[in-house]
Amino acid sequence: MPIHLHIGTHKTGTTSIQRQLKRNRESLKKLGIWYPSEGELLPGRGHGITHRNIARSLDNRGGPKPYSPDELCTIVRSIAVKSQQYEHTIISSEAFWRIGFAAAPELYSEDELWLRKQSNIAQIRRLFQDVDVRVTAVLRERGAYIQSGYSEFILATIYKHDIKTFIRSYGHGWDYGRQLLAWSSQFPVQAHSYEDLSKSGQLPLDFLRCLCEHNLPDETLAPDKKSHANISEPIACVAFKLFLNQLPLDYHKRNKLYRKYSKIFKATCTEPSWQSLAAANSWLTGAELAELRQSFIASDQQIRFLYCPKFISIHTDEMAQIQLGNRMLRPLTTADQQQVLRIMLSQKSLKPAWFSPAELKE
Question: Which residues, 6+ apart, have CB-to-CB distance to 218 below 8 Å?
Answer without folding.
Answer: 202, 205
